[in-house]
Amino acid sequence: VLGYIEKNYLDSLQRGVVFIDPDGRLDGYIVFYEGRIDDGTGAIAGKRLLGFYISGDDVKPISPSIIWDLAPANDAVGEAVDIDLIKNTADRHVIESLVDYRKELLSERIKQAEIKKKYGVESLKHLIVSLDGDLIALKARKERGENVDLAIRNKEDRKSSYEKALEKLKDQIEKEKSLTMAAPRFLGVIRVVTDKRQDEEMRADFELEEMGMQIAIEYEKAQGRVPEDVSDQNLGFDIRSKDPEVGTIRYIEVKARADTGPVSLTLNEWFKANRFKDDYYLYAVMEISTGNPELYIIQNPAENLKAEEVVDVVRYSIPFSEIKEKGLVEDGGY
């Protein structure tokens, strides 16, 4: 994501371009930073693109991939922006996110260190002990008058080499666990406004979405799977649902309608549908207002549904006729 956004959007970030949110959720600023963690060897342990949504005094982390779901407001009039004020507002949250990122990396580095200790350190120790045994035997032969000086020197050289390698490996393991945060690099900021032109039927309805999510989660549990709500992470899907028996994972995007109607997938959701293919599912919950909702399940929607790309709102619109024809229908009783 970091490389893609730097390549395709860095100029927009630095110029403070205005974007439109077709879903009508956002009206504020999104500020972007590059976070970096270094280890004790001087190497970069990890980089992460960080995004923060600022609306008034409220600041919250937001997935940088949200930019894929926003449309450039080509006809928008620019406005004066106090960059320093925005950066100061976000500073504390940037550091908190970097602290969390460092913890993630440290946890992984500790696991890697245990593997290196088990297979690297212990192997070298075993070789050193083995050479000690060989040297004891050779010195005993020397005491009996045998000419084994060359063999002893060779064994001692090898032992010394292994001991140096052991100390170097131990030092490297410790340095790789010593993680420090580099100063975050400010990449830029964009202004996000609500799209007032968007069709009300297609605009996100938060209450309906909550109800749709609940229906989808209950359905997954009824099927014996373990669903995890990740809708607030903007991953391109709302639910990660694991089958404990076989270990497969469903990546589920949930759409909800009061009656019946078209649904739209964001660019990010469409990317993920194409990436995960048969593991990606669209759960379209229709007729919620009737009290007897119907759940339409479409596997691999990117290949199995005919969607219309709506360029000006960066969405893929799917008519209800497609959902009805291609979807597996489950009623509220499952």
TrEMBL record:
<keyword id="KW-0175">Coiled coil</keyword>
<keyword id="KW-0378">Hydrolase</keyword>
<keyword id="KW-0547">Nucleotide-binding</keyword>
<feature type="domain" description="Protein NO VEIN C-terminal">
    <location>
        <begin position="209"/>
        <end position="298"/>
    </location>
</feature>
<keyword id="KW-0347">Helicase</keyword>
<protein>
    <submittedName>
        <fullName>Helicase</fullName>
    </submittedName>
</protein>
<keyword id="KW-0067">ATP-binding</keyword>
<dbReference type="InterPro" id="IPR024975">
    <property type="entry name" value="NOV_C"/>
</dbReference>
<feature type="coiled-coil region">
    <location>
        <begin position="152"/>
        <end position="179"/>
    </location>
</feature>
<dbReference type="GO" id="GO:0004386">
    <property type="term" value="F:helicase activity"/>
</dbReference>
<dbReference type="Pfam" id="PF13020">
    <property type="entry name" value="NOV_C"/>
</dbReference>
